Amino acid sequence: MENQPKLNSSKEVIAFLAERFPHCFSAEGEARPLKIGIFQDLVERVGGEMNLSKTQLRSALRLYTSSWRYLYGVKPGATRVDLDGNPCGELEEQHVEHARKQLEEAKARVQAQRAEQQAKKREAAAAAG
């Protein structure tokens, strides 16, 4: 095996997957729902490539599937895809509902963080002025 560069972050792994499997993973725009069990397919197809470990693949997959882009793509009528972009069944209602809930929670966290930052800015401005 030739000496391949190691991918250090989950974002780098996702970029590699989007390049290697363009009909499945996307680096921008709306992401398509992935086949259930796609992790095992990934291990079989890219195991050892780019010095990727199972842990790195799992972490990248977790980051990808929890992104807002991915969660927006999990909607009624959407079809799951395999690594080659082939349809692998429609989403179940419970998966659509789970994605909707995750997206709502993520948006609420961001909103709370922004409100906290604004409050700190106001406090700092009041203390300085």
Report on the architecture of this protein.
This protein is mainly alpha-helical. It has a single domain, classed as ProQ/FinO domain (Fertility Inhibition Protein O, Chain: A, Domain 1, Orthogonal Bundle). The chain is 57% helix and 5% strand. It has five helices and two strands. It has a two-stranded antiparallel ribbon. The protein is flat. InterPro entries: ProQ, ProQ/FinO, ProQ/FinO_sf. It holds the Pfam family ProQ. This is ProQ protein.
Keywords for this entry:
flat, RNA strand annealing activity, ProQ protein, Fertility Inhibition Protein O, Chain: A, Domain 1, 129 residues, chaperone, mainly alpha, cytoplasm, 5% strand, two-stranded antiparallel sheet
Helix/strand-derived class? Answer: mainly alpha
Q: Roughly how many Å is the radius of gyration? A: 19 Å
Query: Could you give the order of the helices and strands?
Result: HHHHEEH
Supply the CATH class: Mainly Alpha
- Helical content (DSSP H or I, runs of 4+): 55-70%
**Unreliably modeled segments:** none
Average pLDDT level: 91
- Give the strand tally: 2
How would a textbook summarize the main sheet?
2 strands, antiparallel
Number of helices: 5
